[in-house]
Amino acid sequence: MSVTRRIHHVAYRCRDARETVEFYQSLLDMDFTLAIAEDKVPSTGEPDPYMHVFLDAGMGNVLAFFELPNSPAMGRDGNTPEWVQHIAFEIDSLETLMAMKQRLEEAGLDVVGPVNHGVFESIYFFDPNGHRLELAANTGSEEDLRRLKEVAPAMLEEWSRTRRAPRHAAWLHERPSKLAQGPDEPGA
Fold this sequence. Notes:
Blueprint: E1 10-14, H1 17-28, E2 31-40, E3 47-58, E4 61-67, E5 86-91, H2 94-106, E6 112-116, E7 120-126, E8 132-138, H3 142-162
Parallel strand pairs: 1-4, 5-8
Antiparallel strand pairs: 2-3, 3-4, 6-7, 7-8
């Protein structure tokens, strides 16, 4: 059992705290719960004013951002592909996923997906700071998750030796999207 209870919060940088809070409030219905502002960094004593905002991402999960007006402009790791670093939020259903896709597109955002990952389907888009976001609706069964957990150690071991994608869970990617299935089809 892990010594940790849950993630207390995850923190990212933002360009503009107000714009960021408004984005997450208006498009993802997150509640703005806390703001902390200091002229010095508490952990280092360094003089560096900041605004630290916290949003309720649901079920006790907290998403936080720092606006740092005296630091150089935000960048991103140019050696890591844009799709790798992202924040994924679980939503309750495929219907909600599709409704959110429509809502985001109506707000002028470019949305990729839905993408079928076998045990969940996702859409992807960017927040005003350039952070890639994912909304994911679970579609896998308890048996699917059990099978995936069972092969995870062997997959990691093979990957560590070969740096090639192991095929232990290839069945996952062979499934059709639940969105493409009709209501009377198996797995719908």
